[in-house]
Each structure stands twice: as C-alpha cells, then as structure tokens.
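Entry 12.
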Amino acid sequence: MPVELKPEINPATAERLQTQISDLCEEFRGVFSRETVEQIVMQSLEAMGQVRFDDFLPILVYRLSRDRLRATGQAAGSIVKDVPEVLFVCVHNAGRSQMAAALLNHRAQGRVHVRSAGSAPAGEINPAVLEAMQELGIDLTEEFPKPLTDEVVRAADAVVTMGCGDACPVYPGKRYEDWELDDPAGQDLETVRRVRGEIDARVQKLLSELAPAD
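Predicted 3D structure (tokens):
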C-alpha cells in the first residue's frame, strides 16, 4: 500500500516519489524493510523543506534517502565499507563542507568515500563557492545542502566540523577534527579562493593519514 504523502505535493511529484520508494526497496532488498525505506524517504522529504515542491524535489529526496540508507546499513554493519568514510559538517552545508567534500573526493580518487552535511542547511550552495570550485574543474552544480543526520555520523570513520562542533553527536571510536576556517558566506570570490586553498591543504593532509597512496 503506497505511503501517504502531504496534500501540498502535486500528484506528479507524489507519483515519482512512490516510484523511488519502490526502487530503493529493490536496491536494499534483504537489508531494509519497506517500512524502513518509507520512513527514511518521509524524513528526507521533511528535511528538504527549503526546496520548492518542483521537478527537482523527487531526485533530491531520492539521493538523500539513498545515502541515508547506505549510511544506516554501514553503521549497523549490514553494508560493508570498502574504504574509510569521511563526513564534513558546517552550519549551512553551502560552502566550507561542500568544498572540503569535493576536494577530498577529487584528491582521493576512490580511496575514501565522502559525505557532507549541515546543522542548519541552506536552500542552495553559495554561488561564489560554485565559481571557485569550477575554476579547478570541479562541478558542484548538481550538489545540494543536506541535513545532518545521526546515521551519517555513525557511519563515518572521520568527522570534520567547521564552526558547528556542538551540533555533531560524538561517538567513540571515531576521529573528530574541528577546522577553524572563515565562512565564505557573503564573501567576495578572492576570499572564497583563499578559504578553498586552506581547505585543500588540510584535505590533502587528512587523506595522507587516512588512506596513504601506494
């Protein structure tokens, strides 16, 4: 029986969300029940409250739900982690944590898996951050601010906070770091470039410690 969605969601969007629930149930068959998948999707839909109910909503909810399900499985041990998991957290997930995640993913070339999140996610990524990353050939136009959830923290091997350390739960056995960096929000492109450079240097050091190159 299809899960009941909010009445303000238009029928086309609701139909796509129902299809995605079925797709996720198939992907995670044997790992999660349909009830769990539906719960995660509904929670993700609520978390994307700042996103307009338009054509982009279903795919963003799907991507967020899929990542949360994988993190939940990893934290429980029902999904094996092949490489270290790194989580970057800032307040809005619109600047520093997005740059850090993209830079580490670019540098690691598969040696680690990266997530990012925000304690109070914004509605979109900072345009100056998009431009600064594009200068390095890193396209963030398909990324979006994501909420900080318990399962992504539990799944991480290393958690890096940037100005929101108190918002991130602490679990034993994980590596925690807090990087003091200027917030690029409202800054000019030159300042964002400087912050990008500081993040890149720290990212390379973190990568060398978590997953040294052969």
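Annotation: The domain at 82-214 is CATH 3.40.50.2300 (Rossmann fold). The radius of gyration is 17 Å.
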